[in-house]
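Long-time lurker. I teach an intro course on protein structure, and each term I like to show students one example going from raw sequence to a predicted 3D structure in token notation. This year I'd like something fresh instead of my usual example. Would anyone be willing to generate the tokens for the chain below so I can use it in lecture? Attribution to the forum is fine with me.
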Amino acid sequence: MRIAIPLAEGKLTPHFGHCQTFALINVDPDTKTILNREDVAPPPHEPGVLPRWLAEQGAGLVIAGGMGGRAVSLLDEHNIQVLVGAPVDQPENLVKAYLSGNLSLGANACDH
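-- Reply from a regular --
Happy to contribute to a lecture. Here you go:
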């Protein structure tokens, strides 16, 4: 399983579409372990580009702080699950919390 997390300055950013990089983290859901992490710069932000690009990167889940409804729908069309309202934190901490069933989600930080 591959989890994508939008980053700014090494931590989750509340603004999905305007992140500096994505942490792409491969995990083993059976053993609940992180296998590796790769930080990748996304293509320039334009409507519909990031969902397609993340699908090409093999992402099956996005953990985000905030995301617009259109982006959520487009990711869903690419069979990518979306969790919004995640706190600003290091990607590994978010993934470990998700794998253990303890990821605390708040309000969607995006208002569009």
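Some talking points for your students: The radius of gyration is 13 Å. The first helix runs from residue 49 to 56.
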